[in-house]
Design goal:
The complex is a heterodimer of chains A (308) and B (524).
Chain A (H helix, E strand, L loop, with lengths): L1 H28 L4 H5 L6 H11 L5 H14 L12 H36 L4 H15 L2 H15 L15 H27 L2 H9 L3 H30 L2 H6 L5 H10 L3 H29 L1 H7 L1
Chain B lengths: L4 H23 L1 E5 L22 H4 L4 E3 L5 E3 L2 E6 L5 E6 L13 H7 L15 E8 L2 E6 L6 H5 L9 H7 L14 E7 L3 E6 L20 E5 L4 H9 L5 E2 L7 H6 L3 E6 L3 E6 L10 H9 L3 H8 L5 E2 L23 H10 L3 E2 L5 E3 L2 E2 L1 E7 L2 H16 L3 E7 L4 H6 L6 E7 L5 H6 L15 H12 L4 H17 L3 E6 L2 E6 L2 E2 L11 H4 L3 E2 L1
Helix pairs in contact in B: 8-10, 14-15
């Protein structure tokens, strides 16, 4: 098990290097002089010279990459052009909010999704199944922006249970988490349902029925474990998306976060911030898939064997 | 569970004073929401900053404050005078003023402050000052390079709030982000860009101008100013009591706010104009006929009524109605006239095509129409696109972020039309946006006309008195109008709304909701 984990971790390194090369190249691929892309428009020649010295911008490209990567690994991601603060500070301010929002939303969509999917699969084609699936479909097709405003109007304005916006208290997390989570439930529920229905057709399930194991126990203890395989794969891919894709929800609820930081920086052509945010999101996706793989290995010995 | 009556009474009696303390502590706190145009302002550095938000005047005091009737009231300056030829100004400073870090405010501060503008974007505010002399501790004398009757008006702007020299120099480049030290009624406790600014009352404050009733520290002890980019969210926060005041409200929400019982709505005259600059340096707008046609295609009334609900006013020239220099020769005001627009385009040789877009020598009259992010901008730009199409000009819309669109304009050749606004209550805004010295941005029209430059020089540098200045700027304004380098669209009013749990003075003094009013706001 440990060797699997270590091998999997080592495989991350080439992936990380490849992604970091692309992120580094952004400043050079975008039209314009890379130096101008890293400075504000009315900068003095001294500021330009200082930047050139700091990043070795007059050296060959591969050396520049090495310098940039070296600094990034140590935590120095450069300075934001518009906001004039170190990028690492900006990310440190926004990351906890994104992690909290994304983490809880993920947990919510996992738990509710799997429960709904399992529930539907057990009562397959019954009226409960159809109603649950329809409601889930509605919840996922409604745009998150609109759903967020509806949530505010119902739970914050009419009922007054939660604050309208901001990130100043823990209960301000509830409505944004519900908004994002409801969108994620659909995929998880459907995949769970399909996987469970497929697993139920297998021989070992017939044998369990023959042995006289109660149907509910078969469904929840045996079939679900197998059905969770594809679900975990999907969830591990969604981790990165959830961290960066919460932009509209962050906008509506006036919350800070990595997603809005990235979008604002893109609009403002603030490339150091763009690079830093993309690096964070890439790391999040990689760690997410690593976690997914590890969980799968824990659950399924065949995965463990395959890699060794 | 059994409790004796005594123990219950004891528990209750502890709760009562505790709740009073909590109530009293929270009673002096308020939360405001700043105008959406101010969201994302990167720092509180008035000298180097290009974008400042509404909380700036709470942290920094200015030398003078301008009232709605154009008069000036002293804040850090108590008296001022200039010589007849305008080449020298003398200011008497208020005694006993200290900055939040304890440093004193005196003539030495001014002598440090004025030269600091050199090399910054805001240099134009002090560029007429040749030298500053500290006559004594509380008197300064400016010797001017040329007369500047606009000096007082500039000094009333939030960009001329005075920071503490010691704190400013000590913080270097990060001044305004982690620390901002002024002499204003509120001290900066924390600043999270794009989220909120937390201010605490400056208990040593005793130098409010005569525009404020309260001459001591502000009545609100802790003021949080939140930045909420989504207008609906801000409106819902006010409706539920989550915030106490919206410093600026979009016109869409007015009917609902006026109907709400716990909310009061107020209006202030506008301080800016929505307009469409026309790039005179690229085809087809290097032809004045095409420029005039584009300008005459704009239907100001339609935009006022349909997008802004009839609130505000149509704009027919470049200045707000309260300025004397906006009273130009009525024949030069630019108004909707589609027949004349069509006639001019026909004269210029642009023939109407079958798809509704004109063409000349095989080139279609299709232009780039830029605008910045924001609901109102997008709506106005879409209407303008349709109005231009009605006279045969096809327009492609591109939306930019407000913080970077200025850099895009500086490239000079990629835009042809744009929808913008400005917020400035002085006629020298004509110089700012149309001077040949500032091509690209702010001179988005890329206009460099010798006659205009001559009129500009006279207006900016050779006006010795306020009356001369008005006359010279009116002449400059009239010439600008006659060349159709822009099209006026709309003059907004400032609308604000607050929860009745705070008391706001009946009349707002000054031209905007700033420190002179906020020190008088109390929590009920």
């Amino acid at each position: 098990m440990t060797s699997f984990f270590i091998k999997r971790l080592l495989l991350l390194i080439p992936v990380f290097l490849a992604v970091s090369m692309v992120i580094f190249a952004i400043v050079h691929l975008v039209p314009g002089d890379p130096i101008d892309n890293l400075l504000s428009v009315n900068s003095s020649p001294e500021q330009k010279a200082e930047l050139v010295a700091r990043y070795g911008l007059d050296k060959p490209l591969w050396q520049q990459y090495a310098i940039w990567l070296g600094k990034a690994v140590q935590g120095d991601l450069g300075d934001a052009i518009i906001l004039k603060r170190p990028v690492a500070d900006l990310i440190a301010m926004n990351l906890p909010h994104s992690l909290a929002l994304g983490g809880f939303a993920l947990i919510f969509s996992t738990v509710v999704g799997i429960a709904a999917g399992a529930f539907s699969a057990i009562n397959k084609n019954g009226w409960i199944d159809r109603i649950t699936m329809t409601m889930i479909l509605l919840g996922s097709t409604v745009p998150s922006f609109w759903l967020g405003l509806l949530m505010i109007m119902l739970f914050a304005v009419q009922l007054g249970w939660f604050p309208v916006s901001g990130a100043r208290s823990w209960d301000a997390l509830v409505l944004p988490v519900l908004t994002i989570g409801l969108g994620g439930v659909a995929l998880v529920a459907r995949v769970t349902r399909v996987a469970m229905i497929e697993t139920e057709r297998r021989d070992f399930v017939m044998m369990l029925h023959a042995k006289g194991v109660p149907p509910r126990q078969i469904a929840l203890r045996h079939v679900l474990r197998h059905a969770l395989q594809p679900v975990i794969t999907i969830l591990s891919l969604r981790i990165g998306w959830i961290l960066g894709g919460a932009v509209t929800v962050e906008f509506v609820f006036a919350r800070p976060g990595l997603g809005s930081l990235l979008i604002t920086a893109l609009n403002q052509r603030d490339y150091p911030v763009v690079q830093g945010s993309l690096l964070m999101l890439a790391i999040a996706v990689m760690l997410g898939t690593l976690l997914g793989d590890v969980l799968q290995a824990v659950m399924d010995p065949r995965v463990r064997e395959r890699i060794t | 569970m059994r409790y004796t009556i005594t123990s219950l009474l004891l528990a209750g009696s502890i709760l009562v004073p505790a709740s009073f303390v909590a109530f009293a502590a929270s009673a002096q706190e308020a939360t405001f929401v700043m105008p959406t145009v101010d969201v994302g302002a990167p720092s509180y550095d008035p000298i180097r900053g290009s974008k400042l938000n509404a909380a700036t005047t709470l942290i920094y005091d200015r030398m003078v404050i301008q009232d709605a009737d154009q008069s000036f009231h002293g804040q850090l300056a108590t008296e001022w005078s200039s010589t007849e030829d305008g080449m020298s100004w003398t200011f008497k400073l208020r005694p006993g003023v200290t900055f939040h870090d304890g440093e004193p405010f005196n003539a030495a501060t001014i002598a440090w402050w004025v030269p600091k503008f050199a090399g910054t974007e805001n240099e134009f505010m002090t560029s007429a000052i040749a030298s500053v002399e500290a006559v004594d501790d509380l008197t300064v004398k400016f010797t001017m390079k040329n007369p500047d009757p606009n000096l007082l008006s500039n000094m009333a702007s939030s960009f001329m709030g005075i920071p503490s020299p010691k704190a400013y120099d000590a913080a270097g480049d990060s001044y305004g982000i982690t620390t901002a030290v002024g002499s204003g009624p509120f001290k900066l406790e924390s600043f999270t860009v794009g989220q909120e600014t937390v201010l605490v009352a400056n208990e040593a404050y005793a130098w409010a101008s005569d525009l404020s009733v309260n001459q001591g520290p502000p009545l609100i002890k802790k003021l949080t100013i939140r930045e909420i980019a989504e207008d609906s969210t801000a409106f819902l926060e006010l409706s539920t009591g989550g915030v106490d005041m919206l410093m600026s409200v979009p016109t869409d929400f007015l009917p609902r706010l006026e109907a709400a019982e716990n909310v009061t709505v107020g209006q202030l005259p506008g301080t800016g104009i929505f307009y469409m600059p026309i790039n005179t340096s690229v085809t087809p707008f290097d032809d004045i006929k095409v420029r005039e046609a584009a300008a005459l295609a704009i239907n100001q009334k339609e935009i006022l009524e349909n997008i802004f609900g009839g609130i505000g006013a149509e704009a027919h020239n470049f200045l707000i109605g309260s300025l004397l220099e906006s009273k130009v020769d009525p024949a030069l005001n630019i108004s909707y006239n589609p027949d004349r627009a069509n006639m001019l385009l026909d004269e210029a040789g642009w023939v109407m095509g079958s798809d509704g877009v004109r063409a000349k020598d095989g080139v279609a009259l299709q232009v780039a129409l830029w605008t910045q992010n924001g609901t109102e901008f997008k709506r106005v730009t879409e209407v303008i696109q349709a109005e231009l199409k009605a006279v045969g000009i096809g327009a492609d819309i591109t939306i930019f972020d407000s913080a970077t669109i200025n850099d895009q304009y500086r490239k000079g050749t990629e835009h042809q039309l744009a929808v913008r606004n400005y917020s400035w209550a002085n006629s020298d805004i004509i110089d700012w946006f149309f001077s040949g010295q500032r091509l690209g941005y702010p001179n988005v029209s890329m206009w460099n006309d010798p006659k205009a430059e001559a009129l500009n020089a006279v207006a900016m540098k050779e006006s010795r008195t306020w009356e001369e200045r008005v006359a010279n700027f009116t002449a400059y304004h009239e010439y600008v109008l006659s060349q159709f380098v822009f099209a006026p669209i709309y003059e907004p009013v400032q609308v604000y709304a607050y929860d009745n749990k705070i008391t706001v003075p009946e009349t707002i003094r000054g031209t905007r909701l700033q420190s002179q009013t906020i020190v008088d706001i109390a929590v009920n």
